[in-house]
Amino acid sequence: MMTRLAPLRWCGVALAFWAYGGQAWAAESVATNATLAEMRWWFVAVVAVSVLLLVAFWHRGQALFGLLGVAILLGSSARLWLTQPLWFPRLEISPDPPENLIMLVILAAQAVLTGVVLMRPAGRAVIRGLVTGAGIFRLFLLMVLVGVFCLSATPYVAYGHHVAFGLQIGVGGALSFVQMATLVVMFAVAGPDRIPRIPVGALAFFATFVSAILAWTAFDRVPHVQDEVVYLFQARTFAAGALWSPAPPDAALPALEYYLLDVTGDRWIGVPAQGWAAVLSLGVLIGAPWLVNPILTGISVWLAHDIVRRALSRERADMVALLMATSPWVLATGASLMAHSTMLIAVLLAWWSLIRAGESLTRMAVLLAFVAGLALGWGFVTRPLDGLIVGGLTGLWLLRRLPAGLGQVLACAMGGILSGSALFLINYGITGDALLTPQSDYLSRLWPETKNAFGFGPHVGPPAKSWGSLDIWVGHSPAEGLLNLLNSIASLNLELLGWTFGSLVPIWIVFIWRKRLTGFDRAMLVIIVTFVGVLFFYWFTGTFYLGPRYWHTALLPILVLSAAGIEATNDRLSEQYRGRLYCVVLLLCAVSVVSFTSWRGVSKYQGYGNYSGDIRRQAQAAELGNALVFVSTKGDIGSALYLNDPFLPLDRPIFLRDLGPEQNAAVIAAFPGRETVYLKGAE
After folding, report:
1. Alpha helices of 447-477 — where are they, by DSSP H?
2. Helix/strand/coil for 576
3. 533 FRET partner, CA 20 to 30 A, in 12, 59, 68, 447?
């Protein structure tokens, strides 16, 4: 055994030396948020897992299956290495850095290995069975969809790089074809044909744990977009038992000004919808706001499993829970400070309660319906549009219980009115108009010539040319709606499952193979189509940070159809291969966590948006007392402003934008008796 493992040891030593690379490599970087040295260590970790995977299957007498699994893992990682991860991901194949050549060799080796196995009699038999069962046309259509949605068309349309877009589709489609071919030939070799059932509790804990690790490391427990800075501001305000804080002195306003923070009269407020901030305030009270979303993520996995188990089957529920707990989209959203995990919990809790209520007509059923209404109402307070869509569709479904379930219908409606009315009360308290949200009021003053609205026209959206490729045309039009839709699909195809050949392949299979859908499946499809249809009329699609996050509320319907696609594939396999499919899916989920999720953490979310924890660490190291801390940084000033207590108390430091000696002097005069400190952030 020692002799057999010696080459692996030498391989590990060589990889560690390559990753270290000396001082010259450490300062270099690739087109990511990571240095080249950090990317090297990431790939070394992937190789280490690959070695463990190969050894594990070798000891089981399934070495070739293990080698193909390693090809999937290393091939996925090599493709990710060659992918520019920021804004609109795309392949960047060049000889610099030289590691790119190593990645191309890995991809070529995967193709050769796959081809060799395919040429064996068992491999040819699997291919014949696939072609016979699926049909050439369906397979061709599947590959077209895989190629077209392997990247977003938005930047190529924005800058007129149409030839480059075609090349990207061609190369990306070819790499996806190789990856899918490797998966197919895994059915032609000896390998595992049964996996133990993973308890949903273990999957829920896993989702919470990985999200928390991401929040602590890659996200560094700091905001990474302006919305998150303001959510923390709101949460701290709510934790103090208030809807707003007193406005800072006029002289300090320029140094504290920030997008989505508004000063109206004597009030200082955050303008986004407040449902998430109220939940986040619980994390503020315990001193760990970063931990709230990971906990909600784990609960979501359990709720999703139980909903699908009761509505369909345990088998489908197990698959949904597995896909959800290992989804990079879910895990990253759970590691962030965004509102989507709370919205998802509200929807899942409502559906779970209504399904439970529908199982009986007792008083408990009425109580559960009331809880469902409370959850739907809070979803409306958290994300009003999502709440309207889900609440409306859920209400239509619930009306089917009339007249026997009249008590449940009324209880759900009362719960929704009770909690949902909080939005109108907050509106009235802040703007004086129950129907005018603080955000609408704020943006109407910030964008006086345009409007943040739905529909088409030259005055819909932000001022012209102010958002770059995120809003490439003036106003909003059907053409831009279509482009946004295609961008969201491409983003979901990448982020949903982290399968580099295409996360949406299972859903494509549902429609290409015309799987017969259950009533629950059709209800999920209606929800997806409604979200997509409504958002077609909105000028913006926020895919650049956490994937297609405006679709996140439809996560369960998307995963239910994904699991249906895996079922459809399994149904078309011969009996001897059916157990193997779930083993391959489990392998893909493991590869997603090991490769894709870690790649996202290292290359994108670390320091995303020029936010970092450097200023927080400097502040913790210094004894600031109640100092005025003027911060100069080439990063986002939100990295400093988020540290402020909204009430600017006398015993806490105040972090401000450094505006130069003259304006700083006016700020110092507005806060007499405080020491002055200057900090530098990212250069």
Report:
1. none
2. helix
3. 447
